[in-house]
Write the structure tokens for this entry.
Amino acid sequence: MRRYNIASMRFTFLGLLALVACRERVAPPAAAPTAPTLSLQTSPLRTDAACAAPFDAPGTREKIRAATGQLKIGALAGLKDADEDNVAWIRKLVAELKSRGADVLIAAGDLGDNPDEQETLLGAVAESGLPVIAVAGNREVRSDLDAAEGELRKKGARIIDLSHTRIVDLGDATVVGLPGAFERRQLHAEGACMYAQREIDAVATVLDRLPRPTLLVAAVPPRGQDARALDVSEGQNVGDPRLSPLLQKAQFAIFGQVWESGGRAIDGRGAPVPPKTDSPRLYLNPGAADRTPWPMADGSTVSGQAALLTVHGRNAAWEQVRPAEEKQ
């Protein structure tokens, strides 16, 4: 009787062990979930080496104006479409800028999607007879834009491209350019320009060496901190955080791209600078010149605008510009 009980106990014990082992093989413990990783959108390499010449290369600096004590810059961005109505609108904006005394015009990105559009849009700006300083944004293929600008120069236009002429001396201020977009996902054309950290570092070094005041021109704004910034889109700050340190080096700047935040300026603390108010540091988003109605971050809608930046001494002021018959 005892032997039977012992055998039964052994059998039961072994069966339990087998059952446990089977369960462990069928249902192993779930692995702990791993934390999601963030992927950087920026690339360590430029899309095209021609997007920005080295600052020490021959021909990368040009003086186009002597100092007079005051400099008026017509700032445009987002020219976009070359249809007949939009080109007529841009001509009106340029005429208004010239009537307010602009000495030079700056076109900050979104200059057209192909050479024909770029030649038409930049041509409408250059017809003013004023020097035009252009910077590529996220849709201009470098070879296309070079071809368009070359055709316009044959017709007598004075166009300075900040991909090639990196520093432009305007007498009362010195312009330094940073062409391109900062994220690959922003590019609207294969072969469009994108800058990398080394270009930002090179701009920072040059800004430290140049006499003040300096004016940074880029198609992308820096990352802001609140709803008053130059880069607010759908309630979020979407600019490049790597550009923020450049605002400690450049006294003034013109940025494009985030059209919802156009028609505004901030100072070195990020506080709004009202129109026609002097500031020792002034960073401007002129808004899209394209006449398509655009919903703004403040809830309004604006159809095409530009801005006039006036530099006198160590201060600057700005004002919104729209065609005279369209002012509200």
Remarks:
- Confidence is low (pLDDT under 50) at residues 1-45.
- The two ends are 108 Å apart (CA to CA).
